[in-house]
Amino acid sequence: RNVSDASVIQELMKDTDLTSNNNQSPAKVEAFKPATEEVKKQTSQSSKVVSLEFATNSYALNQDAQALVDREIKELAQGFAGAYIRVEGNTDNVGNAGSNRKLSIARAKAVVDYLVNEHRFDENKFIIVGNGSNKPVVGCEDNADEACKARNRRTEFQFIWDVNGKIN
What we know:
4 strands, disordered N terminus, four-stranded mixed sheet
């Protein structure tokens, strides 16, 4: 991300007529209604854990975190085009429970905002959840060392079908 030059790709694409190939069509853009409470609580059919590094007490995505979301989540989100995506933010146990919950929500929201603004996903596709420190990684429940704390500062992406078992 830091060393790429987008002008090269833009120059290559300038003379390409994407509509001339009858075997390809533009991706269908799904319009989402805001998720109902029932959908928000639905068990996910697939999930992806992505450990994003946030500065202490911060929810700002740095360029490395953005590149990780681009690499690990963007294509999955496009592949599950009709599914809701629950984004769960988590924290370690440093700080009080109320602050950790707010911080975990802000971290999940920062990831969603990035996907919406950078990749033009429908914001209603996402369900934002903040777990605070209430959902630690197995084996790191006590946050005994810095490695466990880092593992607990994670974001999970869960792909949700609608309550009727169909993609929305």
